[in-house]
Structure formats: structure tokens, C-alpha cells
Amino acid sequence: xxxxxxxxxxxxxxxxxxxxxxxxxxxxxxxxxxxxxxxxxxxxxxxxxxxxxxxxxxxxxxxxxxxxxxxxxxxxxxxxxxxxxxxxxxxxxxxxxxxxxxxxxxxxxxxxxxxxxxxxxxxxxxxxxxxxxxxxxxxxxxxxxxxxxxxxxxxxxxxxxxxxxxxxxxxxxxxxxxxxxxxxxxxxxxxxxxxxxxxxxxxxxxxxxxxxxxxxxxxxxxxxxxxxxxxxxxxxxxxxxxxxxxxxxxxxxxxxxxxxxxxxxxxxxxxxxxxxxxxxxxxxxxxxxxxxxxxxxxxxxxxxxxxxxxxxxxxxxxxxxxxxxxxxxxxxxxxxxxxxxxxxxxxxxxxxxxxxxxxxxxxxxxxxxxxxxx
Amino acid sequence: xxxxxxxxxxxxxxxxxxxxxxxxxxxxxxxxxxxxxxxxxxxxxxxxxxxxxxxxxxxxxxxxxxxxxxxxxxxxxxxxxxxxxxxxxxxxxxxxxxxxxxxxxxxxxxxxxxxxxxxxxxxxxxxxxxxxxxxxxxxxxxxxxxxxxxxxxxxxxxxxxxxxxxxxxxxxxxxxxxxxxxxxxxxxxxxxxxxxxxxxxxxxxxxxxxxxxxxxxxxxxxxxxxxxx
Lengths: 374, 229
What we know:
The structure holds two protein chains of two kinds.
Chain A: E1 4-12, E2 15-23, E3 27-32, H1 39-47, E4 54-59, E5 62-66, E6 71-72, E7 80-83, H2 95-99, H3 105-118, H4 134-146, E8 152-156, H5 164-179, E9 184-189, H6 192-198, E10 201-206, E11 209-215, H7 216-221, H8 226-231, E12 236-239, E13 242-244, E14 247-250, E15 253-256, E16 265-270, E17 276-277, E18 286-295, E19 299-306, E20 311-317, E21 328-332, E22 339-342
Parallel strand pairs in A: 3-9, 3-10, 7-8, 8-9
Antiparallel strand pairs in A: 1-2, 1-4, 4-5, 5-6, 10-11, 12-16, 13-14, 14-15, 16-22, 17-21, 18-19, 18-21, 19-20
Helix pairs in contact in A: 3-4
Chain B: H1 9-39, H2 45-57, H3 60-71, H4 76-85, H5 93-117, H6 121-129, H7 134-145, H8 147-163, H9 166-172, H10 182-191, H11 195-227
Helix pairs in contact in B: 1-5, 1-8, 1-10, 2-5, 3-9, 5-8, 5-9, 6-7, 8-11, 10-11
């Protein structure tokens, strides 16, 4: 296996992080989750800045961590490139100094020159970080992380320090660099759009558990559980009270899905762009009232309320007719776009046997694991 | 200096030697202590901080009294010293160094601790991910980032040791060439109504302190401008 294989469990106080993931040898994986879900901790564990309580991490065929064999490769020897949030550049060193940090003296000049050129930083070699723009700093951080050609590149919220209007351009730049880099890349973010643009795979992490891991399009179109749906920006979530074959009902009405619905279904989800306004009130659908209309330029968002008060958002193109706020409408929720969501999760988490037999080196829940600070 | 009694240079030289030795030892002891205080979550942190700060609030005579007991040939450190070195610790240069290290500890530890507390931890971790050991990281990343705190610690530790009087008098007495530092020499000259000599020494100390502070403030200012993002 040339990619990443990481199965581990980690405790931060009472917070439990558990992860079971396998990633291919190349490509970008975005780890999405609300703040405090354990995203950054996951990154730190992969980098070796913290040690999992138990489990194993293998990257490009090398074992970086294995609690059963007492292997824990120090961060210095992992060959991992990290772009930290806010970049963590060395403020007292020039751009060339940052990129060339700890490189062997003989090859330093050549490799620094190469990477400054690759990231269009030649003109800034002698500048200090405080003399650079946010985007230039990000490129310095990328060059510094990539100059060693690490087996794994980790990026922690790479755009949080950049102004919104610059993000799109920087994303494209990052995409170009990462595309040329044929190793696994893991980006931690809470920005859905960022994940969508950059990643070909998405992992959803909620409350320290990896809920989903799959191809970006798959996870977006079918989040499966309620927490993942929320993370993936599914804002129309109808609570389910009754299940009868393909028919699903609640205080808001009843809908018929295309297939059998799992008994564990707790909510129905649909994306705002898939909700349609029925032409006449006689058509099948759910009765609703328009509460507010918000202009977003290319599209407009109708904030509606079903009869029990459940909010439903409807996105309409800018050129489509709009009902006025306060008017009654009938909403069509096409069956092929409805998703049954369950509150229960089958998390990708090595519970018990997954880690490989009995593990006497596990820690008692609640104990703080050792962190390898100096 | 023309017109200055060469015998006055003895106390000046002794003061400089004492201050330099004290600062060097305090950097060796104070840096790990400050690092620990800045990073620990141990319950021992608060009591240790209080102990470190004690010399700031204790009257020098009180501190000097305890140190004298501690260093006397019957005391814990004094008796051990007597066995190992063969002469008493109290009323010796070595005794003065020990006393100065305790007396000036907070002046070195506190600026270092606050510098370590505001340190960008991610820069340290970035250095590790780039393959640097903790020692290499300390020298190349930490020290340049805390240079203002380090300079403040060195200058305050040096100046405070140079100016100490009460503790020196208690544990060192007034032995020319061994424990008679400038501040004690000034006191003695005043006792002898040699106001000219006391005045020369005092003016020298005043000028030195002023120059040092001007240098420190201007360096800090320059670094501040350099570091501003």
C-alpha cells in the first residue's frame, strides 16, 4: 500500500478522536468538520506532533506509528510537509531563509531557487514575512513544506488568513501546485466550497469520529447521516415521524421516496437547488409560506416555512419568477433528490477488534496521552 | 579615569565580575525554569512562581539573613561547601555569587517566561516538521523570537546584581578584593566622610546604568519595528 493507512484512537481529556482511514497514493483529501470536531488534532497526529493512544499509521509503506510494536517515528523523521494555519513562517528569516531552513548546505541554494521559481517567489527571496501579502506568505509556506518532497502534505485551514476576494485565485494556484505533486495531500477545512474546489475525496469528521470518507461528488450528493448532511451544507432537513414503505411523513406532510426507507431514518434531506415551486397549488407537494427572499446575485434564496414551521430553503435562478414574501406556495421535492438521513452513524472508527486483537497498551478513557513536546 | 584612586578599581572590577558570573549562571538555570513555567500545566507552577518572585518583595536584609544562616559553616549549603572546597561559603566571592543568583532570579526568569509565553508555538512545530531537533530549533527559532525578552533578562539581571547592597552586606561583608563591591564601597566611603570618592563611584554607576538602559531601549525599538507585520 503506497498511500496512507491510519487507524487510531486518541484522547484529549474526555474528548475521544477515532479514525480509520485509507487514502490512495496521490490526490487531495479534504477533512471537513465543525470547529472542535478534531480536524486539527487529526492532522497533528498524522504529522507526529502528537501521539495517538493506540493504533497505527502507515504512509508510503513505512510504519510511522504502531502502538502494538512500540513504534513511534519522531516528527523530524516522518518526511511530512505541514502548512500550518497562519503559516507559522519564521518571522526573523527571509523568504529564502524560510524555504532553505535545515536543508543540506550543498544543495540548499539550488533547491531554494527551484522552489521559489516554481511558486513565483523569486522576486521576494530577500523579503521578510511581514513584508509579504497573505497570498505570498501562503506560497512561502507551501514552498517550505514541499522543498523536501515529503511523502505526505498536510494543510491546516490554508485560506483562513487570506481575504475572501483573494481566495479563488489562491485556490487555483494551490490546485496547480498540488496537481503536480504526486503524493497524498490532506487539507483540513471548515469551508465547504474550499473542499469542493480542491479535493477529490472528502472525509467528514464530527465530534472526533470520522463519519464519511469518499469521493467528493458521492459525499456531497449522499451524506447518509444527519451530522454529515449538516457539515455538507444540507440545510433542508425535515424531521421524520412516520415510515410506511416508501412513504415518509411528519407534521409537515408526507412524501414518497423512490426506494424503501431504512427504519433508522430520522430526517429527510434535500438541497435548496433541488426544491421546485409547483406551478399550481393542485400539484402534489408540500404546502408552505414564503417568509423572506434574499438576493445572492446569480440566484435568489426563498426562505419558506412548512405548515408545522419547518424551514425549507429554495434556490431560484435570477431570471425565474419569484413569489412575494407572505404568499402561499406549493413545494415540489423530487424523489430522486430526497435523501433519507439517520441520526445513527456507522463511524469509520476502529472500535475494539479493528485495531488488531487485544491491545494491552491502550489508555484508560479520560487519561491524557503523552504529547511529545520538548 | 584620571584622578581616580586606583584602589577604587578593585570594587568596580569585583562588581562587574560578580554581575557577569551571576547573569551567566542565571541564564543557564533560569532559561529551563522559565520554559517550564511558561509551558507547564502542573499544580506546582503557582507555588514555584511565587518562590521565584519572593526576592522582589522580601527586604534584602531578610533574604540576606536566611542566606547567611544557609551558608554559614553550620548551615546546609555552608557545611557541604566547607567539606568540598575547604573554606567557608559565607563572606567569600562564591557565596556572593550564590546569593546574587537567588536575589536576581526573578529579574531573569520573569522576562524570559513572558517571552516564552508569547512565543509562536507553531513556528517551533514547523521547525520540527522540517527535520530540526529540539536543540537546533531552540537556537535558530526560539532564541531569535525571544531576543527582546532575553536582552531584558540579561540587562535587568546584570544591573540588579550590580546595584545590590543589603544582601551583599549580610552574606559578604566588606572584604576588599573578595566581597567589597561598588555599592558597599560607596557606603563605606560615606561612613568615612570621603564624599569625593563616594561621589565618583556613584556617578560612575549612574552613568553606566543610564547608558545600558538607553542601549536596551533603542535595540528593543529597532527589533519592534523589524518584527511588525
